[in-house]
């Protein structure tokens, strides 16, 4: 019977718990400095242990995950909660909500630049404050 591992490479673990679709994407994220432990960016070959808190930066938010168990093998989505716990701070989640609600118009990838009509509609939406004119704020 195999003995459970005490340490696993960070790139393998990130892929195994389904934070990244492929291991090469996880390696690239490490090389770009988007993965850190205790604020220190780490290399893809860095070993992690149970109890480590891994920070994954996906702008505009930095997610934090506590390692509950180790695995080098990719698992089904139902098993992921046994291997990691989301400990992302509420302030980071608030940033995510604000960015969703802030009026940012998310264009589908590959649709090209906005047309003149799209720009006019966006300008009208962001500059139209006429609905406040009927309110009497002095009362």
UniProtKB/TrEMBL annotation:
One of its GO terms (molecular function) is single-stranded RNA binding. InterPro entries: HSP15, S4_RNA-bd, S4_RNA-bd_sf. One of its GO terms (biological process) is cellular response to heat. The keyword Phosphoprotein does not apply. The keyword DNA-binding applies. It comes from the Bacteria. Residues 8-72 form the RNA-binding S4 domain. Keywords: DNA-binding, RNA-binding. Belongs to the HSP15 family. This is RNA-binding S4 domain-containing protein. It comes from Dysgonomonas mossii DSM 22836.
